[in-house]
Every structure is written in C-alpha cells, then in structure tokens.
Backbone:
C-alpha cells in the first residue's frame, strides 16, 4: 500500500471512528425525538462503508497467497463471532450475563481475526 493510500486510510479511519464515538455519545447523553435518534444512529454508516470499500480494494491487490491467508483469517473470525454470539444469547436467556455492548462484538472480531491470521500464516510457513 502506498504511503498516500495508507495516509488516506488512516484519515478515513480516524474520521469514521470519531463519528462512531460521537453518535454513541449523542445517543447516550442527548435527549431528542425518535427521528433524530434514528438519524444519529445511522451517522456512522457512510464512513464505515467507505472503510469496507478501502479494505476490499486493498485485499484485491494482494497476491493469491496473501488473499488466501486473509480469507482463512476472516473465516475464523466470522465463525468464532457467530458461535460466541450464539452462546452469549443462551447465557442471556439464562440470566447469566447482561445485554451485549456492540463495541465488544467488533473487538472480538478484531482479536479473532488476528488469531486466525496467525493460525493461517503458520500453516504455510
């Protein structure tokens, strides 16, 4: 990834993350009507869609080996997150845990992607 593209990605990431944080803060601390709350809840969507497009564009430029490693990491993260959400749902029904904070889902996906990446890369080295 060129320095210009990396810089652009970091700028979009910081702006999108700032919007995410601001939307969460507004929804927690500012009391407005339902239409405004829906609008605020949807504020993070454009920035996050742009980030997804940027990541997909970068992945498409990788060689086949790198694509395979990332694919395996994503599969591990996706399936791990699905199983964790499924089990957490049962734990909620058992009144063993509180409602899930959606930020934790994202963090779990990032961690399991990292684990998946290490697992995938070790298989080929």
Residues:
């Amino acid at each position: 990834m060129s320095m210009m593209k990396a810089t652009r990605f970091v700028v979009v990431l910081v702006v999108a993350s700032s919007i995410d944080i601001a939307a969460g803060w507004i929804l927690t601390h500012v009391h407005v009507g339902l239409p405004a709350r829906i609008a605020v809840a949807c504020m993070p969507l454009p920035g996050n869609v742009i980030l997804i497009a940027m990541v997909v564009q970068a992945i498409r430029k990788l060689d086949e080996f790198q694509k395979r490693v990332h694919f395996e990491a994503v599969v591990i993260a996706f399936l791990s997150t699905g199983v964790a959400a499924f089990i957490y749902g049962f734990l909620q029904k058992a009144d063993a845990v509180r409602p899930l904070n959606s930020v934790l889902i994202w963090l779990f996906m990032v961690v399991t992607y990292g684990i998946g990446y290490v697992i995938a890369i070790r298989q080929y080295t």
User: Anything to note?
Assistant: The helical segments are 3-29, 34-42, 45-60, 64-93, 102-124. The chain is about 85% helix and 0% strand. The CA atoms of residues 19 and 25 lie 10 Å apart.
